[in-house]
Write a structure and sequence with these properties.
The structure holds two protein chains of two kinds. By secondary structure, chain A is of the alpha/beta class. In chain A, about 35% of the residues lie in helices and about 15% in strands. Helices cover about 40% and strands about 15% of the residues of chain B. In chain B, a hairpin with a 3-residue loop joins strand 3 and strand 4. Classes of the chains: A alpha/beta, B alpha/beta.
Chain lengths: ~575, ~600
């Protein structure tokens, strides 16, 4: 890369010639305030907060999009710059509800942060404030356009990263909002409810549907037997909510906190992840053996499932019929667990903690009641769990490490790595290889399917049969692979797809990493979270799903065998074709 | 070819067709046939003559008799009298506003004889739907000249030397733009025509497209040759159906004659054109928003740099010019850079088309040399201010421009002089205001427009213009406070400096220029709660002048809110608390005893 010399506020820096002024300023030790800019996701120069003066330039320029060039002289802190930035943020605040005390993003809000940084102590320009309707239609997300600052970060993630393109700007002038086409409610369009929009929102214009209160109610109800499951990724990200560095695993403290919140049993979704491998692995083998529909595609990610239902309804038969680990757990909690513990399943209240917003929708799907009850009663995102821990006054960082309850808290490293992209594939390969070959794998790490590459491929020799697999994460990548499946150019046997970039550790229910934090991390913050997952896997005594003693016992005592009749009834599901657009009434 | 003794040119532009010029044409044809003059008299539909408030307009040649406000039922008389008997129908002639002298000769009308038509050279002269007529007026000769005799560099050089600047608003030197697009490496480049004319009241681009579509096609092909592009797009607003239709016809005709397509005029040069319709967003006239819209996205501007010449349509080098700019190109190529640069002022060459509107006798489209004074435009061409009122200000540049006060009426209009006065050329809107116009109200009007047309992408424009408008509303409602002027200025400065695109960067101009020249009017609204021009309703009070009132009581009877009371034959009084300022009493009072102030 060719380097150029740039002067920032009198200091010379040498930077690659593809840098923006914003990036060059960072090199010079100056963090120019931003709002719409988000590293790797949104660079549109819309919010006009990162304005700077360019020597010889006419108007002020947005540093996030202004390219550097040899000899460029930039001033980031002149009276004109300070006045403009301040006025722009004042204008944004003048059309913002300013109800910070009641806002879930209080103290984790980039607008609030900007006001502080720019020294705003008065809003000179008062006037009309937008009054749009909050869209509460979906089971997972709530959009409040009144809080929206129109930074378009959600639009960028939805269009470019996920390729779903549900959100875009509509209307003009002061009435501009971000919304689905024609302002249709979210539940009537092809939104996958992945929640990536929440992760990038600088304010509280989009948030998850709150399940905290119903969980508190259940916990306070003496009649209820409240069990909780925690998804693999939760332990790798929860610490961030308590100020721990990204990539700190907090499994033991998480269990301890849940126990202190009053859950009767603290179980692990990793257990049903192991179980998923048993079912899905055998499903793969059966499809290969019986010339069934191939490639088989994983079904753990409810955002991905909804995407497939909307965008590739003709390929639903390729999806594994396995329920997701959350839903397998939900069914078993009110059947197997109720039976072995002698509890009336009607009294069991089943809570999951997920890095995901689409899981709320999944738990609410009408078919998810094979236990005779709604299998999962409430789904908390990691952020919601953290709020509950804070509400209860629990000193999270000083908690002792505690262990999951048995039997459904027993899990292997294979179940754990479900939390990262490629994890389901790797877990499946660990088991399928040993089941088919009867040999013990010498090396359990399938490096080819790990990491943040958008689409990964690998080949595995299973007793002379070469099995070709692929892994995609982020729906734009999923789309690429599905187009190939659709036109018949994909010769894979097995594909893992996760809706969110990075897999579940990058889920829409994980802690929000704000723009400045993202800038400070070299590369993608998700890789730090992924590292936490794989380090924990490496240290576990059991790392293959078929070696999970609790899963073995479950089959012996209750289910019989993988793909058996009981499994079929309790652990498998079906899918629904959905349109991309709202149904149009006949009249 | 048939020869005719007379031609009747009937304006088929949007203005005249909306006042039934096509019915006039049909009736003329009927009458001509009835009198069996078919072989002697030909009716030709042309583009706009520019004198739009007098439509429908027609000119009878060879005499050059100019008829205006012709109604369909006048056709019979025109054909019988003028064409059969050779007697001019004098009641349909134009009379000059001050002298009321009737003028029959088209060339002698003041409105026309101060003009110099380059961009509009064929409008009102040829039938825009016939490529042969365009060719007969030297059409496509410039294209033939560049393809046969000139290198690409020479073409660019001529445009540079001519001094032509962008007619869409910015006034950027056209030749430089061409050179940038030419010099940017790339195998795929585009030529784009901005026909998304959005300034309220401006319609020069529409007139060119309706009256002379081939001139744009020819110019774009020349541009394609110069920068190395094989594809062009004309982005025209869907509200211009006649223009779109004529462009479609013209493109088909040019293709048929091999003037568009492969190996044009037998040379190794391919160029074709497509039309893209805009959906009526003002911001799509901004070049990057226009390109974004052509790409199929919501029309929103994107930051520059990169400029379109480097990274434009689909990220390819793109040359984008306005309709009027293109309309000048063939004339410059044929007549040379020196000819063009001999017209106009030092830094603004050639002519400019203005859309005259407002408080002026002659409204319509005019084309004058750069440097023509505002006085010439208003008094000589425009025929002065109606009803003996006083000229107060002229607004140029539409919602992005500003107001020029009466004492600067001798300003020579060119790009730089207008900028220096806090206004701008813009696309050439020129609205004349008289003493009954309130300048705060005018500023509010323009801000209402930009505020509504903001694309919403950047906060200074989206929220800032709204806040400015709110302050102006407050002031015109008599609720202004002295700090409002400071806040208006701070907001204006922020919006100008911080907005993403030209729409926002120029939106405060109407407020800034009126604050500059008419600050006293703002202060009167705020401090004295008065509207000196008597426009802002909330600031008016209705009074009965006791000496003039005869006590007839009619005012009390028409008052819809019973705000007027009194005894017969004694002066009545108006209760200003109850009065809703509807004006019904003033209208009915026969003695002029009621006034508002």
């Amino acid at each position: 890369m060719e380097m150029v010399n740039v002067t920032i506020d009198g200091h010379k820096v040498m930077v690659p010639n593809n840098y923006t002024v914003l990036e060059a300023a960072q090199k010079a030790g100056i963090n120019i305030p931003t709002l719409c800019y988000l590293k790797d996701i949104n660079k549109i120069g819309a919010c006009r907060v990162c304005l700077v003066e360019i020597k010889g330039g006419r108007a002020l320029q947005a540093s996030c999009v202004y390219p550097v060039s040899e000899g460029l002289e930039v001033y980031t802190n002149t009276p004109a710059v300070r006045e403009a930035r301040k006025a722009v943020v004042e204008l944004l605040i003048s059309n913002h509800p300013q109800d910070c005390l009641k806002c879930s993003r209080n103290q984790k809000c980039e607008l609030q942060d900007l006001a502080k940084k720019l020294g705003i102590n008065d809003i000179r320009f008062q006037g009309a404030i937008s009054t749009f309707k909050t869209d509460k239609s979906s089971k997972s997300l709530e959009r409040n356009p009144d809080k929206c600052v129109l930074c378009r970060r959600c639009v960028a993630v939805c269009n470019n990263v996920q390729g779903v393109s549900v959100l875009n700007a509509m209307n003009r002038g002061f009435d501009t909002i971000v919304a689905p086409a024609f302002d249709h409610p979210l539940d009537s369009v092809n939104c996958t409810l992945c929640g990536q929009c929440i992760n990038v929102c600088p304010v509280e214009a989009i948030k998850e549907k709150d399940h905290i209160e119903i969980v508190w109610d259940a916990l306070g109800d003496p009649e209820k037997h409240v069990v909780v499951q925690t998804a693999p990724a939760v332990r790798a990200v929860l610490g961030e909510e308590f100020g721990l560095p990204i990539g700190t695993s907090v499994t033991g403290k998480m269990v301890a906190a849940l126990r202190r919140l009053g859950f009767t049993k603290i179980f692990d979704t990793d257990f049903t992840a192991d179980l998923t491998i048993m079912e899905e692995g055998h499903e793969l083998l059966a499809r290969i053996k019986n010339s069934g529909k191939l490639p088989l595609i994983t079904s753990c990610s409810p955002g991905w499932i909804k995407y497939c239902e909307h965008h590739f309804p003709e390929l639903l038969e390729n999806l594994s019929t396995c329920k997701s680990p959350q839903q397998m757990f939900g069914t078993l909690a009110k059947t197997y667990y109720a039976e072995i513990e002698g509890i009336d399943p009607a009294k069991i209240f089943s809570v999951s903690v997920m890095p995901c917003t689409a899981k709320k929708f999944e738990a609410d799907r009408p078919e998810m009641n094979d236990s005779g009850y709604q299998d999962v009663d409430a789904v908390l995102t990691v952020r919601e769990l953290a709020r509950m821990i804070k509400q209860a006054g629990i000193d999270f960082n000083n908690l002792p490490d505690e262990k999951f309850d048995l039997p459904m808290g027993m899990a292997t490293g294979a179940g754990l790595i479900f939390g990262a992209t490629g994890g389901v594939m790797e877990a499946a390969l660990r088991t399928v290889y040993e089941v088919v070959t009867g040999e013990t794998l010498s090396k359990l790490d399938f490096e080819e399917v790990r990491g943040l590459e958008g689409i990964k491929e690998a080949k595995v020799d299973l007793n002379g049969t070469e099995v070709k697999v692929a892994v995609a994460h982020g729906l734009a990548n999923a789309k690429k692979i599905m187009e190939k499946v659709k036109d018949g150019t994909a010769d894979y046997h097995f594909i893992e797809i996760m809706a969110c970039p990075g897999g579940c550790i990058g889920g829409g229910g994980t802690p929000i990493v704000d723009a400045l934090e993202r800038t400070k991390i070299d590369g993608d913050y998700r890789k730090l979270r992924i590292k936490a997952i794989y380090s924990e896997d490496a240290q576990l005594p059991l790392r293959k799903s078929h070696e999970n003693p609790a899963v073995k016992k479950l089959y012996e005592e209750y289910l019989g065998q993988p793909l058996g009749e009981k499994s079929h009834h309790l652990l498998h599901t079906h899918y629904t074709k959905r349109s991309k657009y709202p149904e149009v009434n006949g009249n | 070819m048939d020869l005719y003794r007379s031609h009747i040119l009937v304006c088929a532009g949007t203005g005249c067709t909306s006042s039934a010029s096509m019915e006039v044409r049909d009736n003329l044809k009927k009458e001509i046939s009835r009198l069996k003059l078919d072989k002697e008299v030909m009716v030709v539909e042309t583009g706009c003559f520019g004198f739009c408030n007098l439509g429908p307009i027609m000119v009878v040649y060879p005499e050059g008799t100019f008829y205006c406000q012709v109604k369909p039922e006048d056709a019979k008389e025109i054909v019988e009298e003028h064409l059969l008997k050779g007697r001019i129908v004098s009641r349909l002639l134009y009379s000059e506003p001050e002298s009321e002298i009737k003028v029959s000769d088209f060339d002698k009308i003041e409105f026309f004889n101060h003009q110099k038509r380059i961009a509009l050279r064929n409008c009102g002269v040829i039938n825009p739907e016939k490529i042969e007529e365009y060719i007969a007026h030297d059409g496509y000769f410039a294209l033939a000249k560049v393809l046969n005799e000139m290198t690409r560099e020479e073409v660019i050089d001529v445009i540079k030397k001519s001094g032509l600047r962008g007619r869409g608003g910015g006034g950027f030197p056209t030749g430089l733009k061409w050179e940038f697009a030419y010099k940017t490496p790339g195998t795929v480049k585009y030529v784009v025509c901005n026909a998304d004319e959005g300034d309220p009241g401006a319609f020069m681009d529409r007139s060119v497209l309706e009256g002379d579509p081939h001139s744009i096609i020819e110019a774009m092909a020349i541009a394609g040759y110069a920068i190395g592009a094989e594809q062009g797009y004309i982005y025209v607003r869907a509200e211009y159906p006649i223009a779109v239709n004529r462009l479609e016809i013209a493109i088909a005709q040019a293709r048929e004659l091999g003037l568009l397509g492969k190996n044009i005029l037998g040379k190794d040069f391919n160029f074709d054109l497509d039309i893209r319709l805009g959906a009526g967003a003002f911001v799509c006239g901004e070049e990057t928003a226009l390109l974004t819209s052509i790409e199929g996205h919501r029309g929103e501007p994107r930051p520059r740099p990169p400029f379109p010449a480097v990274e434009g349509l689909w990220r390819k080098p793109t040359l984008l010019n306005n309709v009027e700019t293109y309309a000048n190109i063939p004339a410059i190529i044929l007549n040379g850079a020196d000819w063009f640069s001999s017209i106009g002022t030092e830094k603004s060459k050639g002519t400019k088309v203005f859309a005259l509107a407002g408080k002026i006798n002659n409204t319509g489209l005019i084309e004058v040399p750069m440097g023509t004074s505002l006085r010439t435009i208003i008094y000589d061409i425009g025929g002065g201010i109606p009803n003996g009122k006083k000229f107060k200000a002229a607004q140029t540049g539409g919602p992005s421009g500003g107001c020029i006060p009466a004492h600067l009426i001798d300003t020579e209009i060119d790009y730089d002089n207008l900028i220096a006065l806090g206004s701008m050329m813009g696309s050439g809107g020129l609205i004349v205001m008289d003493e009954t116009d309130c300048m705060v109200d005018i500023a509010k009007f323009f801000l209402e427009f930009t505020q509504e047309e903001s694309c919403g992408k950047c906060p200074p424009c989206r929220i800032g213009t709204k806040r400015m408008l709110e302050i102006l509303e407050k002031i015109t409602q008599g609720k202004g406070v002295p700090e409002d002027i400071d806040n208006l200025e701070t907001l204006a400065r922020t919006i100008k400096n911080a907005s993403l695109c030209g729409l926002g960067q120029t939106a405060p101009n109407p407020v800034l220029s009126t604050l500059k020249y008419f600050r006293d009017e703002y202060e009167a609204h705020i401090n004295d709660k008065k509207c000196p021009a008597g426009v802002c309703q909330a600031l008016l009070t209705f009074y009965v002048i006791a000496e003039k009132c005869k006590g007839c009581g009619i005012c009390a009877r028409v008052c819809p809110v019973a705000a007027i009371s009194g005894k017969p034959k004694e002066p009545y009084v108006i209760d200003s608390e109850k009065c809703i300022k509807c004006g019904a009493c003033i209208e009915k009072c026969k003695f002029g005893a009621i006034v508002k102030m």
